[in-house]
């Protein structure tokens, strides 16, 4: 996502990453990887529960979720490193959700 950030910006979507890690952990991770998107800390797991993204180990499962302007989930795909969605696939899902 970082390397295609300009393409994500052209969609007009608000793109964020959320995990159960701490704010400080997010800060270090974002700095280390030079990430442009906002990282949100879901330390109590509230968002993780809301979107049914609990992992078997009690953390949060990785996924890409695209929510349209009305709050409807229009795209959802679990992310397994080898099988993660391509940037083009996610960008197309964002554009489709905006229609």
Molecular structure report:
- By secondary structure, the chain is α+β, with helices and mostly antiparallel strands.
- The protein has a single domain (2-98), classed as Glutaredoxin.
- 33% of the residues lie in helices and 19% in strands.
- It has four helices and four strands, in the order H-E-H-E-H-E-E-H.
- The protein has helices spanning 5-9, 23-33, 46-50, 87-98, and strands at 16-19, 38-41, 63-67, 73-78.
- The strands form two sheets. The chain has a two-stranded parallel ribbon with strand order 1-2.
- The two termini are 22 Å apart.
In short:
By secondary structure, the chain is of the alpha+beta class. It is built from 4 helices and 4 strands, in the order αβαβαββα. The chain has one domain (2-98): Glutaredoxin (3-Layer(aba) Sandwich), CATH 3.40.30.
Pairing-aware structural class of the strands and helices? alpha+beta
Distance between the termini: 22 Å
Just give the CATH class. Alpha Beta
Strand order of the largest sheet: 1-2
- How large is the count of helical segments? 4
Q: Categorize the overall geometry.
A: globular
Please state the CA-atom Rg, rounded to the nearest Å.
14 Å
Helix fraction, binned, reads 25-40%
The parts where pLDDT drops under 50 for at least 5 residues are none
Q: Any idea what the CATH superfamily is called?
A: Glutaredoxin
Topology:
Layout: H1 5-9, E1 16-19, H2 23-33, E2 38-41, H3 46-50, E3 63-67, E4 73-78, H4 87-98
Parallel strand pairs: 1-2
Antiparallel strand pairs: 3-4
